[in-house]
Design a protein that fits this description.
Layout lengths: L2 H29 L4 H26 L7 H22 L6 H17 L15 H31 L4 H4 L5 H34 L7 H23 L3 H25 L9
Helix pairs in contact: 1-2, 1-4, 2-3, 3-4, 3-5, 4-5, 5-7, 5-9, 7-8, 7-9, 8-9
């Protein structure tokens, strides 16, 4: 089987399974069912298939496939789903968060499918290990923030009176808030390391650590938003609902930074997140 065919088949298998996971997660939450082993197996299978698709494309084009909009969205969906897989495995008491997060994944996959599937090319300045380090840390940051969003989503649904009875058997809001806080703390660490690695890469590639382009400015705004979210909770002992709103706002800022700005900016590293 040639690499293009392998990539296409593996990607569509992943897309189909992601869709099935979304439907099962939502119906399980609504009907108070717990198909946890099946869900864990499906998520693992989908991530594995998506990994094969990305690997086949990498081998086919000869470089890390993050050079255009299609590749960027595919890589980000893969990163978010890997984070969801790990969280689903390690946080068995709150696995209903998958029903909160999977619609976001489906939205991104639909967006990806609307973009022409073009092969990307990278300039020589991207041939450095710091590119991998930078992107890796940003993926870890987004993954941690994504899991925190899932915990916060449950808190906000309860506060809004949506599915209150169906969510009553889960951990109390304080416990969910604590998990979200820990995830956001990890997110801040990874985001910081990602910015530092990106600055080193920029110095090697273009001779300056920081150029104040749109993506860099918004990455700084995102970093400040994460820090503010953690600071407010730790200093003012705010309620779980307030903390959940802060996490949601921070996620929206991060989403705009890493999913919106690369599509409109003319920065040197356009699309490279």
């Amino acid at each position: 089987m040639d690499l293009l065919k392998l990539e296409t088949i593996a990607l569509w298998i992943a897309i189909v399974i992601y869709s099935v996971i979304t439907v099962v997660a939502i119906f399980a939450a609504v009907l108070r069912k717990r198909p946890e082993r099946s869900m864990l197996a499906l998520i693992a299978l989908a991530v594995a298939s998506h990994t094969v698709a990305i690997g086949a494309r990498w081998m086919r084009i000869g470089h890390l496939p993050v050079g255009n909009g299609f590749e960027m969205l595919s890589a980000n969906v893969w990163g978010l789903m890997l984070a969801l897989l790990i969280a689903y495995w390690r946080l068995p008491k709150v696995r209903v968060f998958a029903a909160v997060l999977m619609p976001v994944v489906i939205m991104l996959m639909a967006w990806m499918l609307l973009i022409p599937v073009k092969e990307s090319s990278l300039p020589p300045t991207y041939d450095t290990v710091w590119l991998f380090v930078h992107i890796g840390f940003i993926k870890l940051f987004m993954g941690c923030a994504f899991v925190a969003l899932g915990m916060s989503g449950i808190v906000l649904l309860r506060a809004a009176g949506i599915g209150h009875k169906r969510l009553a058997h889960l951990q109390p809001d304080a416990a969910l808030d604590k998990t979200a806080y820990r995830c956001m703390a990890l997110a801040l660490i990874f985001d910081t390391l990602g910015i530092v690695a990106g600055s080193i890469w920029a110095q090697n590639a273009w001779g300056h650590y920081w150029s104040w382009d749109k993506l860099e400015i918004w990455s700084l705004v995102t970093w400040l938003a994460v820090g503010l979210t953690l600071h407010v909770r730790a200093t003012f002992r705010t309620r779980p609902t307030t903390n959940a709103m802060l996490v949601l706002t921070t996620w929206l800022i991060a989403f705009f930074t890493f999913f919106g700005i690369p599509f409109v900016t003319t920065a040197l590293h356009k699309g490279m997140v």
